[in-house]
């Protein structure tokens, strides 16, 4: 699941972008209270939550390599 906080684009814009780019995940929006509870303070914050609802990764703009994300996704499906 991808949750996006985008001030300049609507949820529909984000869904259309995901469809155009063939992203298989769902797009959700979160309110300010949720973002505050996750301590999201800047755009492009990436949070990976496992099946036990534990945050196992949190990074900001430019952080997180392809290999790190591949490992996280693989651990989630295994």
User: What fold name stands as the CATH topology?
Assistant: Glutaredoxin
CATH homologous superfamily annotation: Glutaredoxin
Give the strand order of the largest sheet, numbering strands 1, 2, ... along the chain: 1-2
Radius of gyration: 13 Å
In short:
Helix content is 36%, strand content 19%. The chain has 78 residues and is an alpha+beta fold. The protein has one domain (2-77): Glutaredoxin.
How would you portray this structure in words?
- This protein is an alpha+beta fold and 78 residues long.
- It has one domain (2-77): 3-Layer(aba) Sandwich (Glutaredoxin).
- The chain has helices at residues 11-20, 32-37, 66-77; strands spanning 2-4, 27-29, 46-49, 55-59.
- The strands form two sheets. Strands 1-2 form a two-stranded parallel ribbon. A two-stranded antiparallel ribbon has the order 3-4.
- Strand 3 (46-49) and strand 4 form a beta hairpin.
- The longest helix has 12 residues, at 66-77.
- It starts with a strand and ends with a helix.
Considering the chains and any ligands shown, give keywords for the structure:
78 residues; alpha+beta; Glutaredoxin; two-stranded parallel sheet; 3 helices; 19% strand
Task: Describe the protein's topology.
Layout (H helix, E strand, L loop, with lengths): L1 E3 L6 H10 L6 E3 L2 H6 L8 E4 L5 E5 L6 H12 L1
Parallel strand pairs: 1-2
Antiparallel strand pairs: 3-4
